[in-house]
Each structure stands twice: as structure tokens, then as C-alpha cells.
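Complex record, four chains
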Amino acid sequence: MRLTTKGRYAVTAMLDLALHSDHGPVSLSDISTRQEISLSYLEQLFSKLRKQALVTSVRGPGGGYRLSRSHNEIFVAQIVDAVNESVDATGCKGRSDCQSGSTCLTHHLWCDLSDQIHDFLSQISLEQLVMRNDVRQVAERQNFEVQLGCSEKDKISAAMVD
Amino acid sequence: MRLTTKGRYAVTAMLDLALHSDHGPVSLSDISTRQEISLSYLEQLFSKLRKQALVTSVRGPGGGYRLSRSHNEIFVAQIVDAVNESVDATGCKGRSDCQSGSTCLTHHLWCDLSDQIHDFLSQISLEQLVMRNDVRQVAERQNFEVQLGCSEKDKISAAMVD
DNA sequence: TATTTACCCGACTATTTTAGTAGGTTATTA
DNA sequence: TAATAACCTACTAAAATAGTCGGGTAAATA
């Protein structure tokens, strides 16, 4: 099972895209600023997301990325799958050759777990995430911080220490 | 989320312990042979399992490890927790400081997922695993292989290629 | 058409984690 | 006291993660 910042970043970035999709394509540098993810790293992730047809790109000034389909047709599992190879909990990628060619003692348990995780993440769409209160609150805070800019933000942080 | 061979090995070893618990303590070298896990690595894992009071040890000849309580009172989640720090899917270990001190956009989603996984693995006891058909079959094969010994096993493998 | 914006791509790198080694010490039993 | 097996510390190779860097290429605007 592999679920690290790579998968988390991808979902976060896609959710950012969904949240800001009403004014044309969203540039990676915008996402980078709002979500504090390195631009080059985002480029790598979006290359994979594009190949899996989860986003479409628009080049040139004013360009960026757009979700390739409706918010309720994109699920978290698809995003994680696109950047990680899989959300597989087995060590043998389901091939049952975990113990020198044969099945290991706990193979079926990890298969069950993989299914469980996959089912859970397959049921959560971007639409659902956008509607959540906790997501809306964080998004609002992020928009506010970006408006302030870094220097102003630092001043406030410094002021709050006093 | 961290579920790698470390956690898988630990559960496999504990299940092996449960399967062979009827003739006194089980030595790590036995587990090492049956499950093909390096002895030194097993020692590291059992050090943690012992500290979490999941097993008790018996030193000296004929010694080994015993499960510290009944098979239906030890759950997979406890084993994985003992060797990994946690089955946490968040990047901030639940502290909500994922985005430079504040909560990141997808924090709550990963909390939900962590709960989901933990609940699932908390419901599976060693007892249940021991009863499963797939587990019994693999265990039987392993006992047979150990009886043959390595050299005999290689001969059979070689014969099967012809 | 020049310039800017932003996607696109491959190679490289520091850090961390995993998985495993090596070499010893302590306790128990035969 | 010899053998066995737990116990402990430190080290290490390999892999994965989380980036960086340096160049492209395509499209829009001025």
C-alpha cells in the first residue's frame, strides 16, 4: 500500500482545480502558491493526470488546466491511481507470488484490505469534497492568505507573536 | 499511510505463531524458515511486538515466543500499529499542521480514510485468520515444504521444469 | 512578428525509509 | 559447561520520495 504525499498532493491539486474552475483554466503556478506545492513537482503529477485523461491542458498566456469531466464524475481513487501505480496493499501486486513464487500466508488479507480502501476512495467525488464544510473553510483561508501576499502574511505572524 | 513489508511481515509472523502455538513457544528461526523472513529482521519486529505486550518471550533452549493473550483478543490493527508507528493516512499524523502550521485542503479526507482502514483491521482477529480456508491451505503447503527441506525442494523444482 | 505565458520533458539529486547484516551479550536448559 | 535462543546496538545497501534544474514547445497578446 502506497499513499504518501504524492497521492495526497495530487488529490489536493485536483480539488484546488475544482474549487477555482469557474474562471477559465487554472495555472499550476496558482495551485503552487495556494497549496504550497513545488511547481516542478506539480508538473510531474499533472503529466500523469493528463495521460489518464483526468485533466486537459490549455497552453499559452491565460492557459492552465481544466478538469476533463464533471466534478461528480471524478473520484479520489482515480486520482491516486493515476499518480501512484496503485493503492495495492499486497506486496506482489495481486500476483499471488509473494513467497518465492507461491502465495504467502497473509496474501488474501491484503487483497481484502486493498478492495476496502479502493471502494472507499471510489465513492468520494470531487463534487462531494467541494461541498464539505471543512474544505470550504480551508479554501477560504487560502484565498485570503494569497491576497495578503507573503510579506504581509509574515508581518501578521510576527505581530501575533507579541 | 504506511503499509509495507514491515507490517505485512509482522502480521504473517504473528499468524505463524498462532498456527503453531500448540507445542510450546515458537522460535524465530522456525518462523524464519517457514515464512522466509530474515531472522535478524524478525528479531527487530518482535522486539517491538514484545514492547507492545502482544507476545511474551521464553529464553534459552526450547524457548521462543508465545502470544500474550487468546487468539480472538489480538487484532491485525494492533500488530501493524506495533511495528509501523501508525496506519495514519495523513501527512501530519493527525496534528492538522499539514500546510505550514495550518490545515491542508484534504486533511479531513485522509482522517476519514485512516479511520476506515483502522476500523477494518481492528475487526480482524488472529482467530478469524486461522479459521480461513485460504490461510489453512497455505499453512499446510508451508509445513510440507519445511519437511522436505531445501535441497529436496530444489530437486522437485528442477524436475518440474523438465 | 516579438514576447510572454505556461505547458512539456528528461535528467539529476538529497533525503528518508526499508529491509537486511554483523557481531556481540544474557539467560536457560541439558 | 556447552548449546540454544532471546536480546541489543550499530551499521549498510537499495529503493522510493520529493524534489531541483535546464532546457524545450505551443499558443496568445501586443
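Note: Chain A touches chain B through 40 residues (CB under 8 Å).
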